Amino acid sequence: xxxxVNKDTKVIVQGMGSAGRFHAAQMVEYGTQVVGAxxxxxxxxxxxxxxxxxxxxxxxxxxxxxxxxxxxxxAGCMDAVLEADAAGMALCVVITxxxxxxxxxxxxxxxxxxxxxxxxxxxNCPGIITxxxxxxxxxxxxIHKPGRVGVVSRSGTLTYEAVWQLTERGIGQSTCLGIGGDxxxxxxxxxxxRLFNDDPGTDAIIMIGEIGGTAExxxxxxxxxxxNKPVAAFIAGQTAPPGKRMGHAGAIISGGSGKAADxxxxxxxAGAAVARSPADIAATLVEVAGL
Amino acid sequence: MKIHExxxxxILKEYGVRTLQSVVVDDPASAAKxxxxxxxxxxxxxxxxxxxxxxxxxxxxxxxxxxxxxxAAAAAAAILASPLxxxxxxxxxxxxxxxxxxxxxxxxxxxYVGLALxxxxxxxxxxxxxxxxxxxxEVAAKTPEKILRESVDPTMGLQPYQARRLAKGxxxxxxxxxxxxxxxxxxxxxxxxxxxxxxEINPLVVTEDGQLIALDAKMNFDxxxxxxxxxxxxxxxxxxxxxxxxxxxxxxxxYVNLDGNIGCLVNGAGLAMATMDLIKLHGGEPAxxxxxxxxxxxxxxxxxxxxxLKDPAVKGILVNIFGGILRCTTLADGIVAAAKEIxxxxxxxxxxxxxxxxxxxxxxxxxxxxIITATDMTDAANKIxxxxxxxx
Lengths: 291, 392
Fold this sequence. Notes:
The structure holds two protein chains of two kinds.
Chain A: E1 10-14, H1 18-30, E2 33-38, E3 46-47, E4 50-53, H2 56-63, E5 67-70, H3 77-86, E6 91-94, H4 101-114, E7 119-121, E8 127-130, E9 134-137, E10 146-153, H5 157-168, E11 173-178, H6 189-198, E12 204-210, H7 215-226, E13 231-236, H8 260-269, E14 273-274, H9 281-289
Parallel strand pairs in A: 1-2, 1-5, 2-4, 5-6, 6-7, 10-11, 10-12, 12-13, 13-14
Antiparallel strand pairs in A: 3-4, 8-9, 8-11
Helix pairs in contact in A: 3-4, 6-7, 7-8
Chain B: H1 5-14, E1 22-25, H2 28-38, E2 46-50, E3 63-66, H3 69-81, E4 99-103, E5 109-118, E6 123-129, H4 136-142, E7 147-151, H5 160-169, H6 177-193, E8 196-206, E9 212-214, E10 218-221, H7 230-233, H8 243-250, E11 254-257, E12 262-266, H9 269-281, E13 288-291, H10 298-309, E14 316-323, H11 328-342, E15 348-354, H12 357-366, E16 372-373, H13 377-391
Parallel strand pairs in B: 12-14, 14-15, 15-16
Antiparallel strand pairs in B: 1-4, 2-3, 2-4, 5-6, 5-8, 6-7, 8-9, 8-10, 11-13
Helix pairs in contact in B: 2-3, 5-6, 10-11, 11-12
């Protein structure tokens, strides 16, 4: 079992530039059901062995795809996401980084007005993987191992780190997702925790957060009220100075909010075990979950 | 991206926000001349204000009231003489290159209005408060009920009823509501159309003759949106930025200078922050945050080493890479090439994991470069803290 994606997920790729092409091939190699790609004006051609369509809706009609992954440049992402929704995609994974915040504000507002039920993961994220079944995004597939631990994180390489620590100990994962480092994202820690908590295939959860915003505090609230599975957490940026942007747009501490210490305290109060060192993320889970 | 007060006022003025007459100068003689031009408008009163990005200028002595051309020149000379230290600049202060000489104004009331993205609602929120002229964070901490909020629909813009609700809420007399509506609306338009991340008027003053005026103005812009605002992008002031951080950005690296002595070279922002935490946890102090990104090339790795070594405090470097798309072999080649090219003078600890890790480690071992290899992150942290301690 898993959340959001599995062996039956049919994926189309929006954006077949060099990154899109490379990762489309990687996804196919992993075994993901990639059923087509969208390149306006190039319909009927083939790229990386994939059928090319002029639009997402044409791709959907021909392939019954339910999920799209977006690699288009930042300036085109609002269009790409709204097109995916119009074509009836259930899930849209936006890998692209550097999308103007105003575009995401408008995109989410427009989807709300439409009454859209499409879930967005990202933007600015590594994607989502259900090991052994379906990889959507840019993560290295081989570090994962099928199993029963759910992993959710704002960051990319730090997620790989946690996953690798699990896999090295022989502990597999149900699903791993990176939700993205931008201020506005489609799927939050709380959303992912809810899905993992409801997933009979997930026994324990790793949540990796970072400084900035209040997403981890909201996650802590949700954990204390709703999550009945063991949770291990790590918060990156415990030593970051206030007011500085640390790569991710979200990772700015301003005023009294967004500090690592507050997030750690909130999570511990909610019953999560918080690793102090990034080297101990899996070990912390093993301890709290009795794995 | 931040801009100066005078630049923000110029933009806001185009949207219809009322500001005072002012002149930008960069020397005492021009400040005196500006005073002569403006003094009539302010009844003999002008204000000389340091133009730096950091806030708290008044507290640092960067804002001076003057009542003659001589005073204006003296104030300008005093502010320009040395770096301005404010609660937001750090102890070394920020050199002042430009001054804004502004006509004085009668002030009946000081208010606050600002706009920023509310992540929890997913739209910009317009905040207004009767408590102007003080840090809004202070108001939020002490009397949060004095900050009123209205969510702004990004496609519809601010509606007049929302503006009236705020105007009434912060205690403006009904005869000022129309003016306030126009003012708030203009601020929202500027924010939305220019891809701002913050637009703030503090204080917004009501003059004794009932005019609403932006006495100060702050605008920050979303870096990701700058490509569609070339005019705004030109307002960037590199003097306000750390030159090494600028150089890093030009090389496609994300770098932030810190106070410690252990340089870090990491891929991914989250792992880079976690690496800083790791160093500190093991008794060391990180000298920087550095993210080489997911697709770093040999040249970028070399640039990263050069940038880290510019900081004379650096006594050792920790490379922490989890190779995903960035293969460990690519990185190892980059490290070896860079180490040979730039003559590494400090201990180098490398921890590699991920794609093609065995080949990458082999490349490092066979390179002849003095590299301390680490088996995992904890081992890496212990080794770099020890090595940096020994070489300092």
